Amino acid sequence: SGDLEVTVDFLTEVDKLVQLIECPIFTYLRLQLLDVKNNPYLIKALYGLLMLLPQSSAFQLLSHRLQCVPNPELMQTADSTKASAGFKRTTASNIDYTELLQHFEKVQNKHLEARHQRAGRAEQLERRVVL
């Protein structure tokens, strides 16, 4: 809006937000940019942030990300124009989300265990160096 006060602190926070958007935890959000038709407000919000930023590394980062947003007309396929919404829902309902979630959690736990093991080995090496 027109009454927004753009301060150095505000710009710093927007810069931090852009950096966060590029983190692995926001991969899902970035993938939503591919679905232009269903996420117009997300794309508009990111363009709004881009317009607030001065020319900086955060500006370049966000600008480059938004250049990757596809043209919705180019994303149309022959199959998608023929397929009905009912068919898509039937296909989606055949997915066992509980099984997918359990698999995801199992993989995440393995990653966490590996990280702990690496941290434990590093700690043991530090102790040896100190002794």
Automatic annotation (TrEMBL):
Residues 2-69 form the Vacuolar protein 14 C-terminal Fig4-binding domain. GO terms for biological process: phosphatidylinositol biosynthetic process. It comes from the Eukaryota. GO terms for cellular component: endosome membrane; PAS complex. InterPro entries: Vac14, VAC14_Fig4p-bd. Keywords: Membrane, Repeat. Its main location: membrane. It is found in: Endomembrane system. PANTHER family: PROTEIN VAC14 HOMOLOG, TAX1 BINDING PROTEIN-RELATED. This is VAC14 protein. It comes from Syrrhaptes paradoxus (Pallas's sandgrouse).
